[in-house]
TrEMBL record, chain A:
SMART domains: HATPase_c. This is Serine/threonine-protein kinase RsbT. It comes from Actinokineospora auranticolor. InterPro entries: HATPase_C_sf, HATPase_dom. It comes from the Bacteria. Keywords: Kinase, Transferase.
Automatic annotation (TrEMBL), chain B:
This is RsbT antagonist protein RsbS. PANTHER family: RSBT ANTAGONIST PROTEIN RSBS (PTHR33745:SF1), RSBT ANTAGONIST PROTEIN RSBS-RELATED (PTHR33745). InterPro entries: Bact_StressResp_Reg, STAS_dom, STAS_dom_sf. Pfam families: STAS. It comes from the Bacteria.
Amino acid sequence: MTPPAAREEIPITADEDVVRVRQAVRSYAQKAKLSLVDQTKLVTATSELARNTLTYGGGGTAVVEFLTEGRRSGVRASFQDDGPGIPDVDLALTDGWTSGRGMGLGLSGARRLVDEFTLDTGAGQGTTVTVVKWSR
Amino acid sequence: MERIPILKIGDVLLASIQIDLQDRDVLALQEDLAEKICSSGARGVILDISAVDIVDSFIGRMFATIAATSRLFDAETVVVGMRPAVAITLVELGLTLGEVRTALDLEKGLAILAALGDRTDR
Ligand SMILES: Nc1ncnc2c1ncn2[C@@H]1O[C@H](COP(=O)(O)OP(=O)(O)O)[C@@H](O)[C@H]1O
Ligand SMILES: [Mg+2]
């Protein structure tokens, strides 16, 4: 067996890159031996975040990584852009709130679907969202 | 981009999603279905998502939009074949499919549409 790739960078500049991110995250999640439900949750969360990077961040980069810690393994995915940033994080994380024409469930929903969620942003600072999901 | 084929079975349109959906595929399917319902006078639409391994808020909203649009043309929509992992994830994401009817499989979806048709015809 070939060892899992440790890290993959995926530029997000177009629609099809969101699909590419989903496929990469899926294969990392399988390597990390996440259950099917956990794979689905992580892939769904990253689909939301990749689309935000494209729609609101004006494009950016996804980094997908394979993690191990003691006996457990996991996947970290981060989404970075140099867009306008998010001025009010609490508001952006409110279920149903959108500044555009979305459903307002991407950030808040993604946070519920993963084990670790960090959001680093501010008006004029770009946005980086990082999520982690561990095998159980 | 790939066009999702829409089959006509009696007065029901069947769209079976077999690809990893890009956002523009989703929008194209919405438009194609609206046109096909209108031109064919179909009374029901079935979206078969048994091959779909993730549904995020963009894709989920498509189901609601298709259901609302088809209702304007007096057609009912049933989403069939949702995988258990997808269903669990949708609930946690917070997406309630609201008005969208769902059924376990194609056969049950067709039965629902047939029952609805009987009720309105008589
Ligand atoms: N990468 C980003 N850059 C700037 N703003 C963002 C970014 N991601 C999210 N946002 C803001 O947070 C809001 C909520 O995002 P989300 O929960 O995904 O809902 P939606 O995408 O449906 O609007 C967005 O409407 C947008 O204003
Ligand atoms: Mg979003």
